[in-house]
């Protein structure tokens, strides 16, 4: 059984220490499940279960309040050229009338 490469630096000199895998080059500690997720890539789905990719266009499905802004993003607003990222708000984009912003994928549908 071969060990996966380090997800952080790509080193092939990974060794096993109990449940953890350790990279001696960068010191990163991870599990086999973490390595599999990294190899599979980031999967983000919209409100209807469609898989989103970088560069897709999406439509906001409901009015979204924006902290610190006087208005809200109206349902039906089309957002072009999205970028996917890790975290709770997993879509990075520029919303017309608001500027750069992060959105949750559960509030958009693929255009």
Automatic annotation (TrEMBL):
SUPFAM superfamilies found in the cross-reference section: Prokaryotic SH3-related domain (SSF82057), Zinc beta-ribbon (SSF57783)
Keyword Membrane: no
MF term (GO), any: hydrolase activity
Keywords: Hydrolase
InterPro entries the UniProt entry points to: YjdM, YjdM_C, YjdM_N
Residues of the Protein YjdM C-terminal domain: 44-111
Hydrolase keyword on record: yes
Domain Protein YjdM N-terminal: 2-31
Highest taxon of source: Bacteria
Gene3D superfamilies in the cross-refs: 2.20.25.10, SH3 Domains
Pfam families assigned to the protein according to its UniProt record, in alphabetical order: YjdM, Zn_Ribbon_YjdM
Family affiliation: Belongs to the YjdM family.
UniProt name for this protein: Phosphonoacetate hydrolase
């Amino acid at each position: 059984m071969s060990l996966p490469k380090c997800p952080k630096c790509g080193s092939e000199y990974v060794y096993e220490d109990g449940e953890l895998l350790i990279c001696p080059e960068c010191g990163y500690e991870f599990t086999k499940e973490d390595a599999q997720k990294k190899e599979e890539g980031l999967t983000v789905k919209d409100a209807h279960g469609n898989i989103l990719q970088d560069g897709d266009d999406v439509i906001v499905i409901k009015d979204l309040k924006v902290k610190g802004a006087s208005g809200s993003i109206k349902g039906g607003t089309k957002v072009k050229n999205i970028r996917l990222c890790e975290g709770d708000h997993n879509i990075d984009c520029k919303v017309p009338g608001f500027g750069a912003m992060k959105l949750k994928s559960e509030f958009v549908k693929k255009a």
